[in-house]
Every structure is written in C-alpha cells, then in structure tokens.
Amino acid sequence: MSLYVGREASKLWKRVCAEISTEIQLLFDNWKYILGGLIFQYIHALAARGVHYLHRPGPILQDAGFFLLPELGQDKAYISETIFSLIFLSFVLWTFHPFIFKSKKIYTVLVWCRVLAFLVASQILRIITFYSTQLPGPNYHCREGSKLARLPHPESVLEVLLINFPRGILFGCGDLIFSSHMIFSLVFVRTYQKYGTKRWIKQLGWVIVVIQSFLIIASRKHYTVDIVVAWYTVNLVVFFVDKQLPEMPDRSTVGASLLLPLSTRDKDGKNKEENHKLFNGNSGEPVDWRPRTQINGKIMEDGHVDPAMNGS
After folding, report:
1. By the 8 A CB rule, do 55 and 137 touch?
2. What is the pLDDT of residue 270?
3. What pLDDT, in 10s, does the model give residues 233-253?
4. Is residue 55 flagged as an active site residue?
C-alpha cells in the first residue's frame, strides 16, 4: 500500500513540476495581459469608491423585483454573498486543475487572459454607466439615516487611493447599474460552459447564477434593472470579445502540445531560421559558390566548355 502511495505521489509531483514549467513559459509570454487585467481590477474598485462620494440617499425607487420577491432582511444578506463566494472559489480552483489532474483541457495562464479580458470590457461599460446616472441605493447601509450612505469629503488623495479596503468595497453605494457580482458570475459560468468538461456542472452553474440573481434582488443590494442589464450586457460582451481573441488550444486532443504558443526565444530562433533560408534560397540549402565561366551566353561550371556550344 505504501509503495503504491509513494509511486502515485511521485507521478503527481512530476506532473505538477511539468505543468509549472509550461505555465511559467506561458506567463513569461503573456504577463502584460495578466498584469494589465489585475491593475484594472484596482481601477474598477477605485471608480466604485469615487462614485460613493457622489451618492445621495433618497427614497427607494419603484421596482418590480422588490414587489415580487419578499425582502430577506439584513440578517440574511449573507446568503447571496455565500453563493457568490462559492461560484468564485469553485472557478478559481477549476482553472488550476491542470496542475493536479492528468486529464486537462485548458492552460491556466491562457484561460485567465481571456477571463480578465471579459472582465475589463464589462467593467469599462459598468463604470461609464454608473457614473452617467447615480441612483439612490436600495441597500440598507445606503438608505437615508445611515452613516455610511454619504462619504465626507476626502482629506487627502491617499485616502481615495487606498479605497478603505475591504470595508470600502463591502459597503459601497452608488455603483448600481450594473451588478459587479453578476459580471464575475456570468463570465465564470460562460468560460466553464466553453472549456469545462462536465455537463452537469455547466447546468448547475447556470442554475446557481439564476438563484444568485433572485437573492441579490431579495437582499435589496441592487435594483432589478441592475441584474437584467448585467445578464444581456455581459453575455454580449463575452460573445463579441471572445471572437476577437485567438482560440485557445485544446489540450484534450492529440498533438495539442504542438499548438502551444511559442515563447519569445522560440519565435526569435524561428525567425532567424526563416531569414537564413531566405538568404540561401527557398530550399534552405547552402549556396553553391563554385566558379562558373560564361561562353556564348552560357555559364558552365568548373570552367569546362561544351564543344557543341563552341560551334566546332
């Protein structure tokens, strides 16, 4: 038994090391996209913090979802956050499964490049939208009488840049249309829909996102319009952005390793080889530098002359 466990542990370790080597190569080639996407997450949080300074509490707007769904109350507001945390953590763990499992379809770095592209495009539209019109927040800490509903004028730029993390993220107001929670959830579910392998997980993912939509409204964290706009906006963004991105190689097919993007070093070597071939001719064979003699318009090799060409 111990021999079997040791053998399997050795195989797992080799698999992890091989995957780390592959992903480091991909990260070296795509680090700019990853870093840019992560930086924009901070910019998005900073924009949400900024609109909180503009927020003015007021009467809750008339909302069909509030009329149809009973209010959960402040003590049950954690339910929707729990569902979102489940979706978020499950997706993150799935993106790192190639390091553990033998059967794999994705590259972790490449799938996060796509996910961050989807998130950034959706968040740009979200920032434009909630700065265009500020609605009175329906959440409990955003209502009239709450000390958190309005932020005092910042005393310094540093106060704004630090965004009072994490409290400033959890108790923000004014960034309503459209829901950030729905952006992440829909991007994650759509990504697994395309690259995941378990059909029942795909179906369960969509069911959970629908349930989360109702829970967000029932918790009075967003108006119904925030959820509805997120559903069609994020799906359209993912659809169009995905068409502009190069298709990710499928590792589950034979020869998928041949589709692995070349590293910078490989690209440079390939370019040098192609230039060498162009310099030496299309065949790539070395140039023949043997001396040639021109006689009657004909070039002969090694200085030999064909008598027929001399007319004698």
Report:
1. yes
2. 53
3. 999 999 999 999 988 887 766
4. no
